[in-house]
Write a structure and sequence with these properties.
The structure holds 2 protein chains of 2 kinds. Chain A is mostly beta strands. Chain A has strands at 4-5, 11-14, 19-25, 30-38, 45-51, 54-58, 61-66, 71-76, 85-93, 102-103, 107-112. Chain B is globular. Classes of the chains: A mainly beta, B mainly beta.
């Protein structure tokens, strides 16, 4: 069983929809939780990160962490065609921070005009 | 602002050939790492380095060597390529301020081993 599970999609939504992307994990030592966006033929770029539990909002993006359920989510409001990409969740134990990340397989999102 | 630069972008090797994937960063980051990305497997850590002269193994190190002689460069060597090493390879860097320094990724090297 993988430490981090993520539905590969693809997830297809119309422009303007609210998108929910999720990951589950098994390692209770994870403390840093991140979401990366990856466009085709490009490297991943960091969208948001949270430390420990709680919510974090940045513009149209909201990240949530529920450590009791070992479940993290990324919500995208008012989705745009430019949001079409693969979204990767990543996490690591508290003593390694952003280093030695464990990634999910990624969810491919398609936002149609 | 170059960030993390990987060369080459594409490479085709025959089984048994050797090659070096280059990675350079201009952000004075102490931490550098190599990941491979395969369908259905996600990104997996191959090797990493927390500073010049210091390297360590990640999750999938077999078949790969690294060295870190300068802060800027972190090459990945395949000594005898195998078809199982067909993948997209990403180099990433960050400062060692662990709590506030996300990984910056390059745009990858797409390697095919026939």
């Amino acid at each position: 069983q993988k430490e981090v599970e993520q539905d590969p999609g693809p997830l297809s939504v119309p422009e303007g929809a609210i998108v929910s992307l999720n990951c589950t994990y098994s390692n209770s030592a994870f403390q840093y939780f991140m979401w990366y966006r990856q466009y085709s033929r490009k490297g991943p770029e960091l969208l948001m990160y949270t430390y420990s539990s709680g919510n974090k909002e940045d513009g149209r993006f909201t990240a949530q962490v529920d450590k009791s359920s070992k479940y993290i989510s990324l919500f995208i409001r008012d989705s745009q065609p430019s949001d079409s990409a693969t979204y990767l969740c990543a996490m690591s134990p508290g003593n390694t921070g952003f280093q030695k990340l464990v990634f999910g397989t990624g969810t491919r999102l398609l936002v149609s005009p | 602002n170059a960030g993390v630069t990987q060369t080459p972008k594409f490479q085709v090797l025959k089984t048994g050939q050797s090659m070096t994937l280059q990675c350079a960063q201009d952000m004075n980051h102490e931490y550098m790492s190599w990941y491979r990305q395969d369908p259905g497997m996600g990104l997996r850590l191959i090797h990493y380095s927390v500073g010049a002269g210091i390297t360590d193994q990640g999750e999938v190190p077999n078949g790969y060597n690294v060295s870190r002689s300068t802060t800027e460069d972190f090459p990945l060597r395949l000594l005898s390529a195998a078809p199982s090493q067909t993948s997209v390879y990403f180099c990433a860097s960050s400062s060692t301020d662990r709590g506030n320094s996300p990984l910056h990724f390059g745009n990858g090297t797409r390697l095919t081993v026939t």
